[in-house]
Design goal:
Length: 176
């Protein structure tokens, strides 16, 4: 069926007529859901998307379209499930569906930054740096001569011994 209209209502009427002839046509059902979204009838659009899913189509493009309908209807969980199903059906081209979801999501929810300042922390180039070290809160604490240190108004005693003697009267780095 080829039918173009600038009016979602006219298109919806044509799609409904086509669905009386071929009620299980997933292409028509998806287009119906898209027309309902254009008419701001989100609940009915989600019902139409449910009808498409009940047909269990094997075309990944249909699942991609269902994901778009669910995303526009603010059903992000359902959209991700539909996009996942599209990727399952076409594992050789998963980025196609991810890109359409990302474009759709960013177009609706993306915001330009208030400042162009790059606030990212530079990575340390030392070979022994671990990701835990980068994403941890690091503070320096003073160890007294009697091997005690204070944290959060509590005094901790470090067990005396030859391995801890080097820490006397020094600052050590603590990580949380």
């Amino acid at each position: 069926m080829t039918y173009e209209s600038n009016s979602p209502t006219t298109a919806l009427n044509a799609i409904d007529r086509a669905l009386t002839i071929e009620p299980a046509n997933t292409q028509f059902l998806v287009r119906r859901a898209q027309c309902l979204l254009a008419l701001n009838e989100r609940r009915h659009a989600l019902d139409a998307a449910d009808a498409v899913e009940r047909c269990n189509p094997t075309d990944p493009a249909i699942w991609d379209a269902i994901g778009g309908v669910r995303s526009y209807a603010n059903d992000q969980r359902g959209a991700l499930a539909a996009y996942d199903r599209a990727v399952e059906l076409a594992p050789q081209q998963p980025h196609t569906f991810l890109e359409s979801f990302r474009r759709d999501y960013n177009a609706r929810f993306g915001r330009t930054p208030a400042s162009d300042h790059d606030a990212h922390r530079k990575l340390i180039k030392a070979e022994r740096v671990r990701i835990d070290d980068i994403f941890s809160w690091q503070e320096f604490r003073a160890v007294t001569r009697s091997l005690t240190l204070q944290y959060d108004k509590v005094v901790y005693l470090i067990k005396p011994g030859p391995e801890n003697e080097s820490m006397r009267a020094r600052c050590i780095e603590s990580r949380a």
